[in-house]
User: Which sequence fits this backbone?
């Protein structure tokens, strides 16, 4: 029997109510009348796929990618872009209220960027699949370990999308194509790098093929034999260094292709600009940038004249952040230290006795609960929190507002990953 879709969940699935049970339906949009087939049934909910759309939403669009619905890279191409962002805003607001019992005083205008070709970072899986004609290169199928049989990708830049089929042929011609499980993409302002995770020694013929491919397609190959730090440039060896720029702050951020950087460089520039506007760093202030990575926020803070301490759990990233500070002439204002911020003893310095005027927090999905629990009456008067998970932001916001005396002055979404259900957001807390 057809059902009416009431709303979207955090994964972009339509939600219907059938005899008191929630049914999560992939491919369905709010307001639509759909038929569905369930693939998982539980006493209180079902998971299903839409089999027919009887009454379509005015916000429904034809997916641009022919692989949509099979490839797991995107989940919302069938929904108009502004409606996607509105859905993400509702996820943020609902999380803040239902988990943290807080509401922002002001909703920030959502940040948009390019809708297509925006991914400057990606990890592509590689597998020899004789039943599908040879080597596959791409993202995993939705909810599967299989690799999607894709010849193009609309969220990758065009020059990378056009390489998917040539990369298949390249890998298929290597001496042992089963020993190259992964290709990692990293695009900088001056060079495009593909890191090949090659587990066996290369033959002379393999190396010649790689050099020829790099020269013909204008990319640089790096080779990785073990962990991320084992990656080294292979060909051409004289390529420009990897970096992205933050021109409003006069900063260039050098990075290795296996380092964490935001996938969407254009939106990252807007995010940094907004974070600086909310934080308002000023000469003479002491500011801590927690989970600082390469210094994506630390160096813009220092460029505004404030003294910044960047703290990051990865010692290699700390060393590269220090090098970036020196290279940008900010070594006198920006210093960095390695510390595990998921351990309470490492977070005490940011509380009452830390002497920091402001904090910027940009944690991974686990959030920053030990950091916010360490804050007290004498803690920083302003906190800018950049989040990649609305649930952990909401949890931490509840601690800040109900236990630490802050108010949630503003919050909003950053559409870092168009056509996916991923919600990136930013929030401002003040004493």
Assistant:
């Amino acid at each position: 029997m057809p059902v009416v879709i009431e709303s979207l969940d955090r994964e972009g699935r339509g939600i219907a109510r059938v005899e008191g049970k929630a049914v999560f339906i992939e491919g369905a949009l709010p307001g639509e009348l759909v038929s569905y087939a369930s693939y998982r049934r539980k006493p209180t909910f079902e998971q299903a796929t839409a089999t027919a759309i009887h009454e379509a939403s005015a916000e429904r669009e034809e997916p641009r990618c022919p692989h949509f619905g099979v490839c797991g890279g995107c989940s919302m191409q069938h929904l108009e872009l502004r409606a996607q962002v509105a859905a993400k805003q509702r996820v943020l607001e609902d999380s803040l209220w239902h988990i943290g019992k807080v509401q922002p005083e002001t909703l920030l205008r959502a940040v948009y960027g390019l809708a297509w070709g925006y991914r400057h970072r990606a990890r592509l899986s590689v597998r020899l699949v004789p039943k599908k004609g040879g080597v596959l290169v791409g993202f995993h199928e939705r909810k599967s370990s299989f690799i999607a049989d894709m010849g193009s990708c609309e969220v990758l830049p065009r020059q990378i999308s056009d390489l998917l089929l040539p990369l298949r042929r390249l890998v298929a011609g290597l001496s042992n194509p089963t020993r190259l499980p992964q290709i990692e993409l990293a695009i900088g302002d001056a060079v495009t790098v593909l890191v090949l995770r090659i587990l066996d020694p290369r033959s002379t013929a393999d190396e010649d093929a790689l050099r020829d491919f790099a020269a013909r397609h204008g990319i640089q190959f790096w080779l990785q034999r073990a962990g991320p730090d084992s990656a080294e440039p292979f060909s051409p060896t004289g390529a420009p260094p990897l970096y992205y720029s933050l021109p409003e702050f006069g900063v260039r951020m050098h990075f290795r292709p296996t380092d964490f950087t935001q996938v969407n460089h254009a939106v990252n520039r807007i995010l940094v600009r907004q974070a600086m506007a909310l934080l308002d760093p000023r000469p003479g202030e002491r500011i801590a940038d927690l989970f600082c990575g390469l210094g994506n926020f630390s160096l813009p803070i220092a460029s505004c004249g404030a003294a910044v301490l960047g703290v990051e759990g990865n010692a290699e990233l700390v060393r590269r952040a220090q090098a970036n500070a020196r290279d940008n002439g900010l070594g006198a204002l920006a210093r960095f230290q390695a510390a595990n911020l998921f351990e309470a003893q490492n977070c005490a310095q940011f509380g009452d006795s830390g002497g920091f005027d402001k904090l910027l927090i940009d944690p991974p999905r686990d959030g920053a609960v030990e950091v916010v629990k360490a804050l007290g009456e004498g803690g920083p008067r302003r906190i800018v929190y950049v989040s990649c998970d609305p649930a952990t932001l909401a949890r931490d916001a509840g601690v800040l507002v109900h236990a630490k005396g802050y108010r949630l002055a503003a919050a909003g979404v950053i559409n870092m990953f168009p056509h996916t259900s991923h919600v990136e957001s930013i929030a401002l807390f003040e004493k």
